[in-house]
Amino acid sequence: MNIETMIGELLALIIMALALGMDAFSVGLGMGLIRLKFKQIFYIGVTIGVFHIWMPLVGMLIGRVLSDKFGTIATLLGGGLLILLGVQMVLSSFSKDEKPLITPVGMGLIVFALSVSLDSFSVGLSLGIYGAKTFLTVLIFGIVSMILTWCGLLVGKRVQTWLGSYSEALGGSILLAFGVKLIFPF
């Protein structure tokens, strides 16, 4: 394999990682609109990065064995989870409690990370069928999604101070819209 082919494959993987990580950025932007501490932002980014490593890894391993029929199911599950998170955030913004119904800690963080990384599972299925380099692929996906999540959360945190009490409703609306877009691509 010559150097030009290797650079071309690396560039393709980086572009794919950016495309997959943009949903983590968008969802991070919405989630950043709730009150988060910098420590939470760090852990959220790392968790999403880890999920963007193991979800395509599992997808690649299964993709080498099975067809890509599961890609649609993964996308629908991810969209459904984002819709659920979005609805909960919007409803929480109208309640008298200061605490949102779901927060990105503990099980809420797992659900959040799973919802934004399910699309990388379906991409992993395709890459597994194609025979992509596993370690390099999942490493790039994880690092890029972690960085983009941090960026989205930090921008959301900054904007949250400007929007006040409406920030959680806006964040939930972003998650809801992104979930609908996953289920009904238009």
Detailed description of the structure:
By secondary structure, this protein is an all-alpha fold. It is built from six helices and no strands. The N and C termini lie far apart (39 Å). The mean pLDDT is 77.
Order of helices and strands: HHHHHH
Radius of gyration: 17 Å
- Give the helix level as a range of percent: over 70%
- The domain count comes to 1
Q: Which parts are unreliable, with pLDDT below 50 for 5 consecutive residues or more?
A: none
Beta-strand fraction estimate: under 5%
Oligomer: single chain
Global structural class: mainly alpha
Please state the average pLDDT score.
Answer: 77
User: Number of helix segments?
Assistant: 6
| Main sheet: strands, sense, barrel | none
Instruction: Report how far the terminal alpha carbons are from each other.
Output: 39 Å
Number of strands: 0
Shape: globular
Keywords: Cell membrane, Ion transport, Manganese, Membrane, Transmembrane, Transmembrane helix, Transport
Subcellular location: Cell membrane
Pfam families: Mntp
Membrane topology: Multi-pass membrane protein
